[in-house]
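Quick log. Single chain, no ligands specified.
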Amino acid sequence: MQHLLQCFKSAFENLTQLLIASRNLEFFTSGYCYLIQILPAAAVAPMYFSRKIELGVINQSVSAFNHILGDFSLTVYQFQSISAFSAVIDRLDEFDDYLDISSQRHLTLQKG
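-> predicted structure:
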């Protein structure tokens, strides 16, 4: 019963850490998406207010910035998928290590 409770506690702690990491990732990606919408307008707004550029230039700069940044942002948008892939690779590596240990034990038992 004690072992079962310990396994449940470990699973619950793992789930809690997973939920916290997912929440933090969602905050980051949402903030990132909103920031890239505001940043280019904020960068050229002083030039507009000093009447060095027209209003259409702000829209052009926002569009160009979003197009270029969208291409560079692939990693941010796919971070959750990349993390899931990494977790699968880690589990497969652990499984491979377990198979290696099991086969070595099996060979040792056959020789002994």
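The chain has a mean pLDDT of 85.
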